[in-house]
Amino acid sequence: MPMKWYGDQVAAKIRSHVAIRIEYAARTLRDRARTALGQARTPPPSAPGEFPHLVTGHLRRNVQMEMNRAALIARVGTNVLYGRYLEFGTWKMLARPWLSRVFREGAPEVRRILESRVPGG
Fold first, then answer.
1. What is the SS3 assignment for 11-64?
2. Domain encompassing residue 32
3. Number of folded domains that form the chain
4. pTM tops 0.85
5. How high is the mean pLDDT of the chain?
């Protein structure tokens, strides 16, 4: 009795499920970053180590997520220049890490998303 190989279809289905989970995890982190950046309003300015306070909302609006399904890579970040200054600090200002803190605090939720059972699996 000949056997039929479904390995390619199974691998494609698994990659699809993994991509969906990675994208969902990245969206979750993006949303957590946006929420964290809107928690406190100025004045007063944020203290070192705190999430930056909301002034104009420009940084918050420009936290983005991009997904590369072919490579199974997602990125969360911003192209707003002062987002980097807030994250790492400058010679005049101590850091107000916001993105790394969101990643660190969101790690358990990301793990849960990535390790969740496949529907029908």
1. HHHHHHHHHHHHHHHHHHHHHHHHHHHCCCECCCCCCCCCCCCECCCHHHHCEE
2. 9-115
3. 1
4. yes
5. 94
